[in-house]
Amino acid sequence: MASLRHGLRQALSQIDQPPDLLLITGDLCQDESWGGYRRLQEVLEDVEPLREVPLALTPGNHDHPALMRSALGRRAVIAPAALDLGDWTLLLLSSHRSGAVAGFLDPRQLAWLERQLELADQPVVLALHHPPVPIGDSGLDPIALQDPGPFLRCLQRAPALKAVLFGHVHQHWQGELPRSGAGAPIPLWACPSSLASFAGMFFGRAFWGFLFSASLYARAFLGSLLWSLFFEVSPLGLLLWHRFWRRSLLFFGAASVGPLS
Q1: Cβ distance 190 to 141 under 8 Å?
Q2: Which of 63, 106, 216 lies closest to 208 in space, CA to CA?
Q3: Which residue, 41, 65, 191, 194, could crosslink 59 as a Cys pair with Cβ 3.0–4.6 Å?
């Protein structure tokens, strides 16, 4: 959470007023725990300019939607949902499927989305966790949104849709989706990660992505207590943490928000 706190403060220092909204596009808590989501809320409360800012969340593959809603439901708008931002509408989709790394959208969500886009009377921005199109990465494209055809065709028919935002790929990425009729293409933007950037890694993104994810799953499997006892108390754990894992996290974090504090 330290890198998220650092990134939020760094971003806020570059604007002269509080933002209209804070959107987090998934993977809020890698161990899928209620306590993890409470820690996120504590971080957001600790960053004073964000205490009154609306919060919008989309579940990622490292999330537990029910626990997320239990811990953050009073503070945040959680996908699937529509949020009126005055002159704009933000549509949030959940591409989470329990036990899956790739993304999925069920028929009911697609039907809801189509109705929202048909009835839209102002510009719309859409957000979800998984990318709906390939980004050109052999390690990440297979775990993007699955069977995206119906979803993309729905977007292409929507003149009110002005942009699609997503996460999951841990890096900046920009593309576009042509419309089915006349009009400018729909911009597609990937949000970078506040902790682990997969852009510009040594030995390839897939290798480091696997290694980093393996450490997170190991912590979830062992439990926070056993993990802490090993890496914070035992000599071998301390050596591994300071010589490898912490250095890796510093590298990942620096690529997107600066060093961990």
Answers
A1: no
A2: 216
A3: 65
Separation of alpha carbons 55 and 38, rounded Å: 14
pLDDT, tens digit (0-9, with 9 covering 90-100), for 38-91: 989 998 898 888 888 999 999 999 999 999 999 999 999 999 999 999 999 999
Determine the Cα–Cα distance for residues 140 and 168; give it in Å rounded to an integer. Answer: 9
92 and 77 Cβ atoms separated by less than 8 Å: yes
Where residue 182 falls (left for φ over 0; alpha for ψ -120 to 50; beta otherwise) is: beta
User: Residues 24-37: pLDDT tens digits?
Assistant: 999 988 788 888 89
Angle at 40 between CA 237 and CA 244, to 5 degrees: 25
Furthest-apart CA atoms within the chain: distance in Å: 64
Secondary element (H or E) of residue 176? strand 173-177
The CA–CA distances, whole Å, from 58 to 10, 20, 168 equal 23, 17, 11
- Render pLDDT for 105-163 as a digit per residue (tens, 0 to 9): 999 999 999 999 999 999 999 999 999 999 998 888 999 999 999 999 999 999 999 99
Q: Name the pTM for this structure.
A: 0.77
In this structure, the strands spanning 89-92 and 81-84 are antiparallel
Contact 25, 165 (CB under 8 A): yes
